[in-house]
Design a protein that fits this description.
By secondary structure, this protein is of the alpha+beta class. It is built from 11 helices and 4 strands, in the order H-H-H-E-E-H-H-H-H-H-H-E-E-H-H. The chain has one domain: Outer membrane efflux proteins (OEP). It has a 4-stranded antiparallel beta sheet with strand order 1-2-3-4.
């Protein structure tokens, strides 16, 4: 019996050393004490590949590489991968042992027992749990790609709006200078008492309105710059030169409408919902399988204080008298039904949203075409008025009215062009035109759109 005790002690020591060698070790990960905002694009973690002013698509590449929220979201994939690794492991058996020294009675030696058992129910639900975690990992991956689409669309919109604003500013600035010159002359005339305050009042109002428009444009441009810098992980005062090139993927409404049919297979948010639905479906399967009674099977061996050794199998069975798993099945089924309804609602909203934006874009494009046709005569009239005014054949008030009409029309056209650009970018973001899909997970098995 001493040999048996020695063998048991040796085995226990070996098992303990094996477990310790397989254990992970703790390492600290301190939180940052300062905001990690780069003072310039060149000092970003992934800097631009070119030193020249950046095009819109180069700004998009920076956003995908350096956006702080994307970096945080991508870390979720590590958590999901860990959950998959955990779910792939078989449940551990349980080991029990006891040493029973003699306290009183007729015995002569120390008693002992040793047993090992395995939860059978955990093995029954193993495959379903593993599939559910795989679907959940795919859902996280699809969520990451969907967020990449959103960041891409936001970067395109901000950079495009900044470029369009820079194109508009010289026009507004020229109009302000024209009105300021006119107002300066009228103020001198008022001081000389050759005109009345009533005469110059409209000029003052027009100049103030033009300056307000220029200030509003500058404020909007600064706000857009700050938003773009935040999107890239730059400090608000960092300078990010843009080339003025709005290089977006080709936009063809007919092609976009044709792509709506396979949108559920390409749009990450819809794929994420389907993967979430697949995981919920596996949860229903697990709840049904969990009706299998709790069953623990094992074996044990032991010796009493009189050297009598006995051993054999043992079984523990849960009696499903009160709990038949009906609560878990109801919760899992309701969750699956909820996700089913959410997917149907998202799919309907997506199709309607894209179709509505395409229709609105077509209307805007038509209005811009009409406005551009009207602009040519207005430009010609303003140019003739400039010549006539220079030759003293036209009074200044009429000349300014004709020029103001041209400026107002050009500003209106550029405003509509910005609105059309924003809609086109939104549509391309919703359908994934020119957007990353390489990291999209596979379709969930057994779940079709």
């Amino acid at each position: 019996m001493s040999a048996l005790r020695k063998n048991l002690s040796t085995g226990a020591c070996c098992a303990g050393l094996t477990l310790l060698s397989a254990c992970a070790h703790y390492s600290a990960l301190p939180l940052p004490q300062t905001a990690a905002l780069a003072p310039s694009a060149a000092e970003l973690p992934v800097p631009p590949q070119v030193d020249a002013p950046l095009s819109v698509e180069q700004v998009v590449a920076l956003a995908l590489a350096d956006n702080p929220d994307l970096k945080a979201l991508r870390a979720r994939r590590g958590v999901a991968a860990g959950q998959v690794k955990q779910a792939a492991l078989l449940p551990n058996p349980s080991l029990s042992a006891a040493l029973l020294p003699l306290l009183s009675g007729a015995g002569t030696v120390t008693g002992w027992n040793f047993g090992m058992s395995q939860d059978i129910k955990a093995l029954v639900t193993y495959k379903s749990r593993h599939r559910a975690v795989l679907d959940s990992e795919g859902q996280v991956a699809a969520d990451v790609v969907w967020q990449e689409w959103q960041v891409t669309g936001k970067a395109r919109q901000l950079a495009g709006d900044i470029v369009m604003g820079e194109r508009l500013r010289p026009l507004v600035e020229e109009y302000v200078r024209l009105l300021a010159d006119r107002n300066a002359r009228m103020e001198k005339a008022l001081a000389a008492r050759t005109v009345t305050l009533t005469t110059i009042a409209p000029d003052r109002v027009a100049l103030q309105s033009a300056r307000t428009a220029l200030d509003t444009l500058d404020q909007n441009q600064l706000s857009l710059r700050h938003q773009l810098n935040a999107l890239l992980g730059l400090r608000p005062d960092a300078d990010l030169p843009l080339s003025g090139q709005i290089d977006l993927p080709p936009f063809h409404p007919a092609d976009i409408e044709a792509q709506l049919g396979d949108l559920p297979r390409r749009r990450p948010d819809l794929l994420a919902l389907r993967l979430g639905y697949a995981a919920a479906d596996e949860s229903v399967r697990q709840a049904v399988l969990s009706q299998f009674p709790d069953l623990v099977f094992g074996g044990s061996v032991g010796s009493d204080n009189s050297r009598v050794v006995s051993g054999g199998p043992n079984v523990t069975v849960g009696l499903p008298i009160f709990d038949h798993g009906q609560g878990g099945i109801a919760i899992a089924s309701a969750t699956r039904a909820q996700l089913h309804a959410e997917y149907a609602a998202r799919l309907a909203a997506t199709t309607g949203e894209v179709a509505a934006m395409v229709s609105e874009g077509e209307q805007l494009a038509s209005q811009i075409a009409v406005a551009r046709r009207d602009l040519d005569p207005l430009r010609a009239a303003a140019e003739r008025a400039r010549t006539a005014f220079g030759e003293s054949h036209l009074d200044e008030r009429t000349y300014l009215d004709l020029v103001a009409n041209r400026f107002a029309r050009e500003q209106e056209i550029m405003t509509m062009e910005v609105a059309l650009l924003d809609r086109q970018i939104a549509i391309q973001t919703l359908i994934g035109a020119g957007l990353p899909t390489v990291d999209l997970p596979a379709e969930p098995a057994g779940v079709t759109p």
